[in-house]
Amino acid sequence: MTDVPADPAAPPQRTAVTGDKRRRGRRGRRGEQAVVPDAEFTSYYGKPVLNKPTWSARDIAGYLFLGGLAGASSVLAAGADLTGRPALAKGCKTGALVAITGSLVALVHDLGRPARFLHMLRVVKPSSPMSIGSWVLVAYGPQAGLSAVTALTGRFTGLGRAATVGAALVGPAVAAYTAALISDTAVPTWHEGHRQMPFVFVGSAASAAGGLGMVVAPVAQAGPARRAALLGAAVELTATEVMKRRMGLPVETLRTGRAGALMKAATALTAAGALLGGLAGRRSRTAAVVGGLASLAGSACTRFGIFHAGVASAEDPKYVVVPQRERVAGAS
Amino acid sequence: MNAREWVRSWPVYRQLTGEDKAAKAAAAKSRRSSGLRPRTAAADKVVKSICPYCAVGCGQDVYVRDGEVVQIEGDPDSPVSRGRLCPKGSASLQLTTGASRRQKVLYRPPHGADWEELDLGTAMRMVAERVVRTRRETWQDEQDGSRVNRTMGIASLGGATLDNEENYLIKKLLTGLGVVQLENQARVCHSSTVVGLGTSFGRGGATTFLQDLQHADCIVIEGSNFAECHPVGFQWVMEAKARGAKVIHVDPRFTRTSALADLHVPIRAGTDIAFLGGIINHVLGTGSHFHEFVVNYTNAATLVSEEFQDTEDLDGLFSGFDGESRQYSFDTWSYEGVSVAPASGQRDQTRGGGADDDRRTGDSGHVRASGRGEVHGSGGTAMEGEPQRDETLQHPRCVFQVLKRHYARYTPEVVEQVCGIPQDTFLEVCRDLVENSGPERTSEFVYAVGWTQHTTGSQMIRAACVLQLLLGNMGRPGGGIQALRGHASIQGSSDIPTLFNLLPGYIPMPYAHHQQGLAGYLDADSARKGFWANMDTYVVSLLKAYWGDAATADNDFCFDHLPRLTGSHSTYDTVLEQLAGRCKGYFLMGENPAVGSANAKMQRMGMANLEWLVVRDFSLTESATWWRDGPEVESGELATADIGTEVFFFPAAAHTEKSGSFTNTNRMVQWHHQAVEPKGDARSDLWFMYHLGRLIRAELADSDDPRDRPVLDLTWDYPTEGPLDEPSAEAVLAEINGRGADGAPLTAYTELKADGSTSCGCWIYCGVYADGVNQAARRKPHTEQDWVAREWAWAWPANRRILYNRASARPDGSPWSERKKLVWWDEAAGEWTGYDVPDFEKGKSPHYRPESGASGVAAISGIDPFIMQSDGKAWLYVPAGILDGPMPTHYEPQDSPVPNALYGQQRNPSRLAYPHEHNRYHPDGGSLGSEVFPYVVTTYRLTEHFTAGGMSRWTPYLAELQPELFCEVSPELAAREGLANGGWATLVTARGAIEARVLVTDRMAPLRVQGRVLEQIGLPYHWGPNGLSTGDAANELSSIVLDPSAHIQEVKAFSADIRPGRRPRGRARADLVADYQRRAGITDRTGTGV
Amino acid sequence: MSVDHESMDLRDLLTSDDPPGSGGYADPPPRYGFFTDTSVCIGCKACEVACKEWNHVPDDGLVFTGMSYDNTQGLSADTWRHVAFIEQRKPLGGQSGAAGTAGTADLGMPAFAKPGEQGGGARSEFRWLMSSDVCKHCTHAACLDVCPTGSLFRTEFGTVVVQEDICNGCGYCVPACPYGVIDQREDDGRAWKCTLCYDRLGAGQEPACAKACPTDSIQFGELDELRERAGRRVEQLRAAGVTDARLYGHDPDDGVGGAGAFFLLLDEPEVYGLPPDPVVTTRDLPAMWKRVGVAAGALLTGLAAAFLGRS
Ligand SMILES: Nc1nc2c(c(=O)[nH]1)N[C@H]1C(S)=C(S)[C@@H](COP(=O)(O)OP(=O)(O)OC[C@H]3O[C@@H](n4cnc5c(=O)[nH]c(N)nc54)[C@H](O)[C@@H]3O)O[C@H]1N2
Ligand SMILES: Nc1nc2c(c(=O)[nH]1)N[C@H]1C(S)=C(S)[C@@H](COP(=O)(O)OP(=O)(O)OC[C@H]3O[C@@H](n4cnc5c(=O)[nH]c(N)nc54)[C@H](O)[C@@H]3O)O[C@H]1N2
Ligand code: SF4
Ligand code: SF4
Ligand code: SF4
Ligand code: SF4
Ligand code: SF4
Ligand SMILES: [Mo]
């Protein structure tokens, strides 16, 4: 850490009142009411109570995004298969495979000991979303792979179809479990959002998959993708808003700083993608592609935003101490 | 593994088939976890050892596997430590096995730019050759017509980290070689303790032991940061606290000790005599003294000579002061009708020691006696004649009344003015002490170097002695004065000294006199009392131990083989000898003066003027590398290529790699056993000394020069063992213990003879090898003994743990109270008995009274608990033996920003000042120029580091805990000087400028002193530029100015300035200091007046 | 088996185990833990060093922080015991356990006035708190719950231990711990924390930190016995006037089911960097799984519905 900032007259910050002036100044955007009054609290030299996640944003936020994209894309792919939309099907299957491969690479890359990746399969632990997630990925990955490979090669179509259906059935779990993964931590923003997080994530996943569908499929086949994007955006934005309202103090982290910017971008991109792709994309292939990309980007921004907000909430003792203090006060 | 097994070993399988469905426990346990065993359980052997850091002497278990030390932890059997270790003790594994340990001999040729590697054997031969050459070149047969037989060309420093056996060999060999400039940390650490306690009670060691603290009802910790510097010992304070004792900490800073105390009393550094004097005044003024104790056990009733004049009469001076020599003559201080003489070296004693002009010019041309006070490490001053007593304590010239008058002006108001202690706080301390003293209760004082390291250090300790005697707290459980000593064996290195003025057992080194033989030295014919009367037996036995068969009655037992002193040859005088070019060769055996000694610059400048330097240490300390990267090289004052000093670096073996004994802070000799062989070229200091001696003796073997007789006559035939030819430390211990005519080990010093039939390397250690058994290695667990734990190791004298414990009983021999009983007279058995070994002749009845004219031990009556004193009493008033006054008197430190509020006399008039271009002093407090250095700096230690850093700054686990030098300042001072927490500050004195990180803390509080606000700055002194954790050395700021009796430096209080920012680099650093000197108007005379 | 029971079992599986006794150990020993009595801590950091020596934990970097005497800053992968230093302008309170001075001790600190200004009075309100922190070995341990590899496991002693041969450095345990204890070691990749000296316990030896502690601030023993002892100590302190004394983590009904390593503090937990009311995150996991299920179902049906349209 760096030196304790020095107010010459002040003795060392023994019980720092870190309402953090910088952040306090920027808070309270027009129209938004402060969720809680400025908190006076004590901490240990302003040091975080929690150890912040060691996960790298690129790997893990990327993983959250790609997992969602893959899972939802597999559902779209199966639907496309069943409703005779070959281009949409093929695109989504390929997309799902690429996404899930990417997410696995990210996941393994983020491990401190990548060579021990298989240790994930030592146990089955319902108490660990990551353990369950690993088994879900075990179930999903091969099916998604088979589905895509058969679609691309045109061989073993029967097997491919079964795999496609299988992947579609597991896909939503892939997209949704990551919400439990991050919520099942002590990180204030993530944990406090645990009720809405699954909906934010599946909404975001649907929006991303819809975006992908709009990009990869001709307008004629992309109807479900457009609706997915619209629906997903609606769910994501609503769920996010509810989450923010119910979160309490840590919501600050979703509104400020890097995370705040990402969340704002996410809202804008997701909404724009849904509107542009979902409405204009019906007629214009360009609008569909641009809208689709916006939806994809929006979904990614959501995941990165939430990720960073979580990290910020772990770094500032305020988000740990104040809500807990209030809880204690309320209980007594 | 077959498939089936493989599946079964799969936790999922175990999870599904076993009870641990959730896979959180048994099912998830790995194969490695199932096979885990602690390496302590897998060790081949557990070797019993003692912590090598501080003098608490915690027991250690050293676990060895495959010839490597794999773990070191506390020994639960130890009665002192009970298995606990502080961070340093806990880091012993890293200290001894870590990567910073050097394993190769290094050599820096004269003017060389870098180290070279050298073969160990070659290096040993080279050193032996240099010793022989330098000795020959600088030999002095005589000085000023007196025989001196010595060389001033060689000096040695270090010993407190070494074993007793090592110190014994160093002293023996170098004395045989005629080297007198032999010193160790004891000089800079606790020499004033020996003077202060020795002159008061008769022995210079802590009067009690750590475990006994639990019995105290009130503990005053003053001049010690107990919890930080002796953390494991502090558990006994916590025990006392848990039993309801009140704990008071008097310290300039609020420390980790204060945090656990009931009361913290902030005090201005250097003013403890005013504070203690205030309490003495309170006790005397309110009649709260323990009358029966005082009358019977102290010299309160003794009448003082009519000629005596007090500081009351002479505005801060006692009678007998000679302004020219700055010394007192003791004549007027003596008792009525008695001439008080030193136990030995009588003429030396009465001449005093003290500052002499030649020291300043560096010309030690005259025979002077110095450091005499330390002789009282065991045995007080001798007297001739019968002192007169007034048991009513009413006679105006009885000590009691003299004392009362002397302290009358130390009122609460004065205490407040001088010390900055609010009156109500002061009175609270008075109350606590008085309430917790008396027959039913006892209070204990604990101090360390917060008291010793002042120009009035010996007297600060004396003040506590006076107070404890008045309160009747001596020799009793939970009472006494706990001197917390420093290094693992610093007590040992005073007892078996590597000190210029002492021979083993506090026998004084002889001074040069015309035709003085052994008899004259012993002054054996004079009628003297107490155990010191048997000194002839101690001395002769020592000479027999040194020179064996060569020592005969006919040749005065080789008494003339001993080199003679001619003045002070303390480590600080040696520095001047080096600067003057007279001292050419220097051994540093486990000491780092380039960081640890006062005025570090002078230390380095002295070394830069040597022909050769031998450094023995674990890693490359600043004292080993100053010629390439010292501050003077950085500033351009010295250029490496110009420095002709040849430097040898020898890697030292650690405590786990050698056997030997350490003497802890409570005189307890504890053996540590070798666990493994040292690696590479690392060797024990015992090995080094023994083989160096062998090589030198071989080189001189054919010499018929009488000058070489002392070294050739030495008994030097220790058996060696093991692959490295390690001399047997037990054989050395046996020699220290002593042998009878039949060669069998002696059991007590009372068996020693003056006829040459016994030999004994250190009479006070006689008994440590009783019955041929290494008593220091005794390890009966404390759980299997009473609280005194007498069967754990061995303590001198005679395995006593609480000294003067006869005083724990009334004059009639019965305990003062049931609650505080320790030793008592068993009338039926006709002997003294109790929990501790009685510090009294076992069969001497309390009703015994000596016949008039009795001498020696027989002159000690049944009510004289202080058996080493010539009158058997403890001395409230010291008529001789301490050089700056019979009673402690407050003087300001050498560099003080304020004037002395008590007397016109500003400073201790007989302090030793050493004016030198690198050792300038500050203007008198209150006088013009003193405002340039407005703050008081005090230097001290932190729990996480050790002394000059050699054992902590290279140790990562310790280094990370306090990674950089910092200074502690109050928020007020920070605001005033613009210092930012975590930022940098520069501290400046007339000697140097250093930079330190700033720690702003409420723990430093401004004081109100004489109507002004006075800020103190805290500065830990552990740092230097080498190692992992680095910083400037605090001792760049301190000056060489010494307590007259002990020659200890004043590093606990000196004025300074502080300013924000880093210090200038290169030349500009010296310019800054010069600028301050100019602004303060400092000249070579500043601060040197009486 | 009744439905009820079934769901309870499931809940157990999802959330937290129930140490000790269960866990599939035959004949488990009693649960062991720490009671750290900070009122007798001298801030010596022997516990930090002893832990590092025993466990070969690397040093944590040399950084001067300016935070009183704390230069290791907090628990981390390379600091498993951490001693906090808090300087406060608050009265000390009689610290001694027995009679001694009850009530507030006047520290005799001089006035808090600018140099040169009027002094006088006393800076009597000052105290220096020190406290050695460690992994709490929670009854309901989030780190252990979320560990996907089974690297973290509950030992037969009821302690929570990372197995260095298993951990793959997924990092999940790090944000899961509500106390900020466990962390990943950068150059090694794995997660590390106090093992409560699992190896030593197995051989009947006391943990290294507790053994070293000079003042017995760290007390090791059977948890039940420690809780009783701690209760007595708090009462004793309060009776002696230290009204601030309180226990932290001793209560089996708290958010983590009680800590295996609990503390006697002299101020609010957050003053020491501890969370005031930590809750094991997996307490909410059943709810989370339920909602994940609903959301996944919604995703499936929602996307299926997207195919209902005509275009
Ligand atoms: N951790 C650790 N332990 C050590 C050592 C170490 O370096 N580190 N060194 C060992 C050695 S060699 C020694 S000698 C001992 C020393 O042990 P201590 O004497 O306890 O050590 P210091 O910190 O030098 O000084 C003690 C206290 O004296 C205070 N003080 C300074 N000036 C005055 C004064 O004028 N009056 C009063 N009343 N107090 C004053 C200081 O603020 C400091 O708190 O410790 C031994 N133990
Ligand atoms: N300003 C200021 N100065 C002070 C003090 C102060 O309070 N303030 N305190 C003073 C006091 S009390 C003391 S004791 C001194 C201490 O000052 P020093 O004694 O100079 O300091 P240490 O670092 O203890 O040096 C001892 C060296 O011995 C080495 N050593 C350890 N064991 C062995 C061994 O077995 N053999 C050999 N050959 N070497 C070994 C260690 O590595 C270390 O480098 O400092 C004094 N200086
Ligand atoms: S340094 Fe002193 S207190 Fe610490 S373990 Fe060693 S002997 Fe004990
Ligand atoms: S304190 Fe944290 S690391 Fe320790 S057991 Fe509890 S959750 Fe796990
Ligand atoms: S980092 Fe290691 S211990 Fe932590 S959850 Fe992952 S596998 Fe388990
Ligand atoms: S119990 Fe062991 S691992 Fe845990 S902090 Fe103490 S020494 Fe370290
Ligand atoms: S070892 Fe004990 S006294 Fe020292 S810091 Fe740790 S808990 Fe406190
Ligand atoms: Mo010392």
TrEMBL record, chain A:
Matching InterPro entries: Electron_transfer_protein, NrfD-like
Protein name: Polysulfide reductase
Annotated family: Belongs to the NrfD family.
UniProtKB keywords: Cell membrane, Membrane, Transmembrane, Transmembrane helix
PANTHER family for the chain: PROTEIN NRFD
Localization, UniProt: Cell membrane
Domain of life according to the entry: Bacteria
Keyword flag Membrane: yes
UniProt membrane topology term: Multi-pass membrane protein
Region (Disordered), start-end ranges: 1-33
Cellular component annotations (GO), alphabetically ordered: plasma membrane
Chief subcellular location: membrane
Annotated TM spans: 60-82, 94-112, 132-152, 159-179, 199-220
TrEMBL record, chain B:
Domain 4Fe-4S Mo/W bis-MGD-type residues, every copy: 44-100
GO cellular component, one term: cell envelope
Region named Disordered: 341-392
GO molecular-function term, one example from the UniProt record: molybdopterin cofactor binding
InterPro entries to which the protein is assigned, alphabetical: Asp_de-COase-like_dom_sf (IPR009010), Formate_DH_Act (IPR048158), MoPterin_dinucl-bd_dom (IPR006657), Mopterin_OxRdtase (IPR006656), Mopterin_OxRdtase_4Fe-4S_dom (IPR006963)
UniProt family annotation: Belongs to the prokaryotic molybdopterin-containing oxidoreductase family.
Protein name: Formate dehydrogenase
